[in-house]
């Protein structure tokens, strides 16, 4: 037998390799031990460390897909990988969860989360989500949206974290209304992104979310069915332009419950194509109140039906409950009920405006969106007397019909003189005496 001599340096190299390998395995074990409460998160990097294989039905922590969460690094790709895994997961027992952990701030670029997914899922926001900070940090050709959910069925977005839109720099663009004299706009593109948008989604639930300082609309739903929003908070300064809280368009079977919205535009806005909407126990502060419209812009068709707003409070807003349509449009708004609403220091508590015009240069037209079957019941509180507390301004050719008022009491704020109601071509009745009395309603339905 022939023996080959082995040098001491060779043995030293082997020993060094063994020690390093053992430490690496121990570190790997401890790392997973730290997260043993999420042992069902099934994501593992491949040998190339650039591709992820998903399996299992558990919790998908965005950190395990490479997210840093330091508020500086771009975590977009990690969220896309986590979404792919949670969307592909097929669970027979529980909904897979995309988890945004508490104590971390994640920056995400404009992103579309696309379905359909294999099973109902949960997007759990316990940490903070943020977009790039200001227009200069966004790509010039992709400024209209931030987080978009497209064609997803059975998704719940919830958590006690924060969605921070970082909208301050967007609000101060020269194209915003408050930048020019007399609220005029100045040259320059806006393209301010909507914070969260849902397109063609069904069976959505949003719970316990906190959203602040959106550059534009906070939540927008287009062509969605069966939406439930409850116990959410939306905040932005009263001076922030176009920061509508919740906007729905061509969306039906909507429930908005137990929520707080303080912003610079409509608290809730309901666009064309919406029906079966129930809004209950919400508080609106600042902004423009709860609006149906605007409808019929550019001579378009608009339909809205079966809307209920009840048991809610509206404070220090420009409008209370409002229906606004453009001249020249056509279609109808009907079966709308406002009930048990507290009004506190609101400029226009009750208003129907069929002469809506955002430019103040609109010409008179004969066609209009028909407004009918509108009920106001138990609407009480105070107004700030800058304009009549009840204003029904209806089309010359298409009058408002079947307006009903019962137990309406609107008083001027302390020390102010009461104003009369205003009506123009509006038909309806007072079922009880109102304050102020709305004697200007025309009898009959025409």
UniProtKB/TrEMBL annotation:
Top-rank lineage group of the source organism: Eukaryota
Protein name: Uncharacterized protein
Originating species: Smallanthus sonchifolius
